[in-house]
Amino acid sequence: SFIVSTILFLLVNGGLTIDCPNSPSQWCKSNEIAQACDVIEQCKTYVWKVHEDDNRVHLSIYYETLCPDCRQFITTQVWNAYQSIPDIVNITFVPYGNARELYRPETKLYQFYCQHGAEECYGNLIHTCVLNFYPKSEQHIPFIYCMESTDGDTETVATQCAQKSSIDYDQITACTHSRLGNQLQHEYAVQTDSLQPPHQYVPWITINGEHTDDMEKQAEKDLIGLICKSYKGPNPPAQCK
Asked: Which pTM value belongs to this model?
């Protein structure tokens, strides 16, 4: 039907404005052409949006839940970026940081040792389970932000934050006490320990899989600026200009 409307558009306009090209492959080349062909909405949904997704910047944050620098970074830089430029960035959280793991053959489970003690290991595990059951950014980022910006007993804070962000905390608790939770945390351990270059501190960030000290400094000062600079897509958001 939009081919018919395109032809009508051309007849009515007598070709005085920009003509709509014969070949549909040209219709989404620019805003003006899409308008001339009366396919703006289709271009937005099926062509431009897809390209935007392909061009997204991949930001990964390797952190641990009770590290003061991680909390500061997540509740300011990451939270601001998530709220201002969500369309050009994919944010991945890896809650493990400077922890170590030891496999226990007798239980067939991993035991974790964390920089800020058992409480932090528990916090990491809670985040791990939330990321597993709530994989979309809009589901888990408000929860992570809430936990990282609230002081207090890990269990109490997690329960309150789950309520605020519509997360089923019973499901999360069950996961933290299960083999599944243990296995998921082990996978984050492997991911963190196989970083190249190996991480030396937390938070440790990568942009499109790469890390440099310079990038880290920029991220901690102006993450939005760094993401905008790394974005190669055709339509940078207003915040990047």
From this structure: 0.80
